[in-house]
Write a structure and sequence with these properties.
The protein has 232 residues and is α+β, with helices and mostly antiparallel strands. The protein has eleven helices and four strands, in the order ααααβββααααβααα. It has helices spanning 11-22, 26-31, 33-57, 65-68, 124-136, 139-145, 148-154, 176-179, 192-195, 200-209, 212-223, and strands at residues 89-94, 103-108, 113-119, 184-190. Strands 1-2-3-4 form a four-stranded antiparallel β-sheet. β2 and β3 form a beta hairpin. α3 (33-57) packs across α10. The protein is globular, with a radius of gyration of 20 Å. The termini are far apart.
C-alpha cells in the first residue's frame, strides 16, 4: 500500500461533495458545518503543497493555499439554479507582476477533475494584440501547441471560438482556426483514482509547468510592441 502524502486528497473529500450534492440546502449544511471545515482543511493542505511546487518553477503572488480557494457559496442572484452551495472544490493561483500573464486553476469534483490555465475572457485590446501577432506569424504559437509536453498534457488549445472570421482578418487566413478563438484555455483532466493517488500534487504541478511556454508567449505578446519595446 502506498503511503499517503500529507497533502493527499482523501475519499472522504469526494464523499462530502457527493453527500452535499444530494442535500444542497442550508439546513443540512448548517448541521454539517464542522464536517465541511474538516474536509476543506484537507483541500487547503493540498493547495498549499501545490503552491510550494508552483513557486519552484514560477513566481506566484497568491499568498497561501488557503487564499487560493474559492468560496463554497454560490452566487444565485441571477441563476435559475437556486441551490446555495458548489459541489466541487476549486482554487486559483495568480502569477506575480503585470509582466507574467495567465493564471492557474484547479477543480476537484467526482467525475470532473481537472487543472486549467490561460485566458478566459481577454479584454478587447488584449484579444486584438493576440490575434494581430498570430496573423503576422503563427509559427511561434503553433510550435508551442505541437510540443510533445503540451500535447501529452492538454492535447489541444481549447476555449470558445467565434463562428466566422474576426473583423479585420480574412476568412482564408492560414491561421483562421487560431484567430477565431475568443478564449485561450489549457485543460488537463484527471480520473478520480488519480486525484486520490499520492502524487496528485506533482502531477498537477507538472501540468502547470507545461503551460509555461504558452504563458511566456502570451506575456510577451501582451507586454511588448512589434519592436520588442515594453508597453506596460
Amino acid at each position: 500500500m502506498s503511503k499517503q502524502h500529507p497533502a493527499q486528497i482523501t475519499p472522504s473529500s469526494f464523499y462530502f461533495l457527493e453527500t452535499l450534492k444530494k442535500n444542497n440546502n442550508r439546513e443540512w449544511f448548517a448541521k454539517n458545518k464542522e464536517l465541511f471545515l474538516k474536509e476543506q482543511a484537507v483541500i487547503e493542505e493540498f493547495a498549499e503543497a501545490l503552491l510550494r511546487e508552483l513557486n519552484r518553477h514560477d513566481v506566484i503572488e497568491t499568498a497561501s493555499g488557503k487564499k487560493s480557494l474559492y468560496r463554497v457559496y454560490r452566487d444565485i442572484r441571477f441563476s435559475a439554479d437556486k441551490t446555495p452551495y458548489k459541489t466541487h472544490w476549486s482554487g486559483s493561483f495568480r502569477r506575480a507582476t503585470k509582466f507574467r500573464r495567465g493564471g492557474y486553476y484547479f477543480h476537484i469534483e467526482p467525475g470532473n477533475n481537472f487543472i486549467g490555465g490561460g485566458f478566459w475572457n481577454p479584454n478587447p485590446a488584449d484579444l486584438k494584440s493576440i490575434r494581430d501577432d498570430i496573423a503576422f506569424d503563427s509559427r511561434p504559437l503553433r510550435a508551442i501547441l505541437s510540443d510533445t509536453n503540451f500535447i501529452s498534457s492538454f492535447q489541444t488549445l481549447q476555449g470558445e471560438k467565434i463562428k466566422t472570421a474576426p473583423k479585420g482578418f480574412p476568412a482564408d487566413h492560414e491561421a483562421i482556426e487560431l484567430l477565431r478563438h475568443k478564449q485561450f484555455l489549457l485543460i488537463r483532466r484527471f480520473t478520480d483514482d488519480e486525484v486520490l493517488g499520492p502524487d496528485l500534487v506533482q502531477k498537477a504541478s507538472d501540468g502547470f509547468k507545461h503551460m509555461r511556454p504558452f504563458f511566456d508567449y502570451m506575456s510577451e505578446v501582451l507586454s511588448t510592441d512589434v519592436n520588442g519595446s515594453t508597453l506596460l
